[in-house]
């Protein structure tokens, strides 16, 4: 339940030994937090959120997103699938990803590209799956591979027009 409140779970791994040494040396002489400065003004962030909210999610892609979320609860390794909150977070992330990619509409590829990061940490694996040391990330990858992509229609006339690549509010 605690992890369901986190938007994404991104694993970065451990840096190589020399990279860790560099980090150690950088932190030895000064406080890296002291150099942090504001990079986005609140009004710019509001514009970005509005642009993300304006990204079009067609009914077929919405169905696909919901089918992926529904399938998490039907997977053999999963005791408790993605919640409504998980579905809402996936919808927000795919809209943001489409905007970052310079599109005014979401594609099934966007769902596939972020599905693991958004959904895997939200699933409760079955006891049997935990005993077999199954990984919820592998389960979500299996689900994404098996859930058929519904016809998107791809009617560009219904798409929200974009004013250029990426998020215009952050230049």
Please describe what this structure looks like:
With 171 residues, the chain is an all-alpha fold. It contains 7 helices and 2 strands; from the N terminus they run αααβααβαα. It has helices at 17-29, 42-53, 59-72, 84-100, 108-119, 127-131, 136-146, and strands spanning 78-80, 124-125. A two-stranded antiparallel ribbon has the order 1-2. Helix 3 packs parallel to helix 5. The longest helix is centred in the middle third of the chain and has 17 residues, at 84-100. The protein is flat, with a radius of gyration of 19 Å. Mean pLDDT is 83; it is low at 155-165.
Count every helix, treating DSSP H or I runs of 4 or more residues as helices.
Answer: 7
The percent range for helix content is: 40-55%
Distance between the termini: 37 Å
Strand content: under 5%
Uncertain segments of ≥5 residues (pLDDT<50)? 155-165
Rg for CA atoms = 19 Å
**Spatial strand arrangement across the major sheet:** 1-2
- Global structural class: mainly alpha
The global form is flat
Spell the H/E element sequence.
HHHEHHEHH
| Number of β-strand runs | 2
Report the sheet with the most strands, covering strand number, pairing sense and barrel closure. Answer: 2 strands, antiparallel
The overall pLDDT, averaged over residues, is 83
Short structural summary:
The chain is an all-alpha fold and 171 residues long. The chain has 7 helices and 2 strands, in the order αααβααβαα. Mean pLDDT is 83; it is low at 155-165.
């Amino acid at each position: 339940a605690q992890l369901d409140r986190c938007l994404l779970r991104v694993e970065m791994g451990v840096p190589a030994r020399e990279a860790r040494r560099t980090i150690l040396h950088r932190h030895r002489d000064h406080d890296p937090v002291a150099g942090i400065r504001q990079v986005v003004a609140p009004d710019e962030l509001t514009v970005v959120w509005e642009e993300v909210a304006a990204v079009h999610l067609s009914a077929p892609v919405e169905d696909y997103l919901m089918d992926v979320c529904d399938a998490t609860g039907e997977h053999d390794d999963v005791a408790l699938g993605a919640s409504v909150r998980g579905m809402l977070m996936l919808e927000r992330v795919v809209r943001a990803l489409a905007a970052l990619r310079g599109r005014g509409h979401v594609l099934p590829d966007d769902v596939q590209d972020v599905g693991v990061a958004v959904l895997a940490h939200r699933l409760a694996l079955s006891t049997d799956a935990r005993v077999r040391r199954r990984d919820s990330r592998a389960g979500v990858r299996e689900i994404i591979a098996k859930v058929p992509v519904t016809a998107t229609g791809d009617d560009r006339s219904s798409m929200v027009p974009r004013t250029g690549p990426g998020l215009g509010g952050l230049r």
